[in-house]
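Researcher: Before we compare anything, I want clean individual predictions. No alignment, no superposition, just each chain on its own. First chain goes here; please echo the sequence and then give the structure tokens.
Model: Echoing the first chain and its structure:
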Amino acid sequence: MAAEPRSGRFQFGYRRSADQDRREPARHPLIVVGAGPVGLSAALDLAQRGRNVVLLDDADRIGEGSRAICFSKRSLEYWDRLGVGERMVEKGVVWQVGKVFLGDELVYRFDLLPEGGHKMPAFINLQQYYAEKFLCERVAATPEIDLRWRNKVVGLTPANDHVRLTAETPDGLYSLAADYVIACDGARSSLRGMVGAEFVGETFEDQFLIADVRMNAKFPTERWFWFDPPFHSGQSALLHKQPDDVWRIDLQLGPQADAEIEKRPENVRPRIERMIGHGDFEFEWISLYKFQCRRMQRFTHGRVIFAGDSAHQVSPFGARGANSGLEDAENIAWKLDYVLAGKAPASLIESYDIERIAAADDNIGHSTRSTDFIAPHSRHEQRLRKAALLLARKHDFAKRMVNAGRLSTPTVYETPLSAPDADEWRGGPKPGASMLDAPLQDKAGRDVFLSEIFAVRGRGFTLLEHANGIAADCPSDVTRIEIGDRGDRFRDPTGTFAARYDCPPGSAYLLRPDGYVAARFKRANTADIAGALHRACGGQ
């Protein structure tokens, strides 16, 4: 598989591809560029749908620092469908409680998942190199994926029905072609330049220091955020625990800090010592960054589709970068599968642009508001922030004004793919929202989660039905998950499913292959299901 150097980094070997010996470029249905979490996940998703994928990456290793560490429940449910979710949770540090301090005084605490009945936790902290390692090992066991290390894309030529790429390898250049290309090659995406696209948005001037340190510490596994702490006066600080006794520390430095000087270990060490009260630690990784709140104007450029950091960037507070990129991957994977299978028109891919740009704008908005609160631009904004923090110690209304990074949640898609409600609903995920997990039992009385059932059955569209003995006919490619008290149906012994979905007997939800609600019906009938399916596949 791969060598494992110190601190969990992993290196892979280059191998020559048969495509490099062809006189004419080999044609592939799908090429993914970039073997980070987003590219690896997109490739796995497509492969599990029976698609052959070529995955190109210009490096031969993973693990240049922890980078992304905070992965949401929604991402873990997606990874569970890809066969790596439980492994991520087993290695990761599970957490759901956060605390916000002013100085050394607790302002408030929050719980991101106070209710039970979910397979996956609210969040885990896991170094990105472990996430990539587990995904790479899953890819290695997936014959539909051809992962080619040290294949750097240096040229791109679009055509009417394909895209031609030129890749640079240790053995020289070669060409290959694809029906569609998914560009997951990161914030410095070379493919973005090749299609003539740029980012639009804002880069904030305040600078932040990241230090991952290895130490034995008794801090709880919570997200701690300080405004104006005694160890870092006038600035902000963040503390997160990672596996292997590694702790993520973020320290605000301000716009005037000299990046090259500040990230020298001898200058970082005194800052960390003041924070934790001792010097018994080792550095794992040190970096400086500025907040970026930017995106491409379009994510689809002909047959080249951008996902993850290559398409959009946000500040790290709120864990919106990697988690949003993973939602890009699951959104485009099923749509490409349906288009290639002839189940949907090519115009369905345009809905990726609509839905994921809306999600990017939502994330950028949250990220920008967090940045403005964490790093005020003026003395007036500083006074407002201080007033909000002081009031939040005693008043709930002011807690909602404090913004230390709103944590990542799935975006609700307000797009033509979702059928509007024809009935009145008191709750439950509305059309365009992500499905909710719930504890169920199978016919043998064994406990099982709805997310697990969907992971097994949800390759296509799924009718999630609270059965009452009268079942509407489904199109042949729609899977049915029936919940009720008879036969082979799954049971809802705690009533959690019925409550979370506002789903009395006879009602049903039509779920897209990515787990989003396409439509819901108080009384499901064949015509309404077929109409919602047609609409969700891009039909007019």
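Researcher: Okay. Second chain, same rules.
Model: Second chain and its structure:
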Amino acid sequence: MTENNQEKIRNFCIIAHIDHGKSTLADRMLEITGTIEKRLMKEQLLDQMDLERERGITIKLAPVRMLWGTRQRSKVESEKPEIRDSSSISESGQDYVLNLIDTPGHVDFQYEVSRSLAAVEGAILLVDASQGVEAQTLSVLYSAIENNLTIIPVLNKIDLPAARPDEVADEIVKILGCKKEEILHASGKTGEGVVEILDAVVDRIPAPKGDSDAPLKALIFDSVFDPYRGVVSFVRIVDGHFEKNKKFFLMQSRSDGEAIEVGYFHPKYFPHTPLLCGEIGYIITGFKSVAEAQVGDTITAKEKPAETPLPGYKIILPSVFASIYCTDGDDYPNLKEAIEKLKLNDASLSYEAERSDALGFGFRCGFLGLLHMDIVRERLEREYNLSLVISSPSVRYRIILNNGEEEEIEKPGDLPEHGLFREVLEPWVSLDIFTPKDYVGACMDVVQKKRAQFNNIEYLDEVRAIIRYEMPLAEVIIDLYDQLKSVSKGYASMNYEMIDYRASDLEKVDILINLDKVDALSFITHKSKTMNEGRRITERLKDLIPRQNFEIKIQAAIGAKVVASERISPFRKDVTVGLYGGDVTRKNKLLDKQKKGKKKMKSIGRVEVPSDVFIKVLRNE
């Protein structure tokens, strides 16, 4: 590519709620632009992980480079797209290089989206024509507007019988302030309107700005670990250009290295040198340590370095905390290595080492939400072949000590005894619920049980409403999302943002199994809920823990006071089955011997809690 071709580059991403057809639209774009041969095409092509394909959601952002111009359009019209790699830019200048970053839609992966927004100049706002604008879409849209991105509104799934394009278009006009004729209509499934979207990307989104003669500045917006080639960094070249074998260093971590390979995504790695100003591509750094190439760092040339680094990213603080342990203590080194590698691939994950008396060595991890936690657990188990135990998720609390000092605690076990602190502060969030008006009452009924404070309700049109609440984060993270989906038949969506910390009357409840405290099951809850929650968890544990040859006592306690208790009766072998008569003392002698054996077994026996119990116990099933 020559320097004047910077005007022919368009960098964009797609903003959409889960299941609004984002990955399907990306598939059609790859097909229509001739980036992928039809025989190699499959659904959700950019979703590389098995987990993404199984759940039908995007977890990791995925960049891809496409070509679009008059020749591609004519090939579409003749239904014979030409397959070419995008290094062969035409001399006539008719081809545009389109760099798409496919992004997740769930609120728990918002950090992935924020990184995409910083690497592009425009975004396609994709809205399901049958469901309308969702809460999480709105949240990401505002972030895109803050980043001064050009927004292209698109109504997807217009081929569905339930589609209501005119009504949903009015919603978009009200939120975005655009003209109704600017909204494109498309179907990712049939390919209708996709050509118009590609044309709009070329016409409406500006070319990247940057000085190709300035010292190299490249923003790392993602990284993955390759076991054979080391750390592979996904970069956006902001200034200058980058070549293979070029020596570089990272301005924040101060690491230096030499580029083993550079190239772009087609959508697999396609070696190509150099990467020029405004382009998106990858650099194989060869780094073996995951800490050397942090997301948000700036790469510059060693011989002619830039003076100041790029702004990078606002660090998103985790809102949910849980401890991860191995079922087999010998696997701890493998878990340590796996979490380090996953942290490189998922910058929103935070962790620190800790030790539990019941479960041994592990890590205290911070997540953006329950789905994020569930995905991390499953990725660790699948990709690194580990068997894990995860504690009950909790939020970060603040306590005011008697001397006036403030401390933060991330797990219930860190809460001091009564009398050693004045008050406990818990995080509160502002909650927006988007729902069809038919389900407003049911949704409000669910939220009112969660210590929520009602703010207002706003009707977007005759069909949809936004209900706004303020409520404790601890009440949101467990199963609020599931309950809202259940009562609204899947139509409601929600989004929440942290607002502040507020004083609450909270208690720590310990769970004891045969008088042994299980740290992973301890929880902090409001005083009004301690009895009910203690009873619910002990009853769930009674169902989930397998019976043993000895009695198991399960108790929920606040300090020395037991608030709920359950008992799992032991297996009983009939030791008198071989008796054939004689004095009753023979029978009593055998029963006494069995009783002593069970007592001894209880004193030395240990209850093995299955690893999935810690997640199942939270669900109100």
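Researcher: What stands out in the second chain?
Model: The mean pLDDT is 79. Additionally, Residues 482 and 592 are 51 Å apart (CA to CA).
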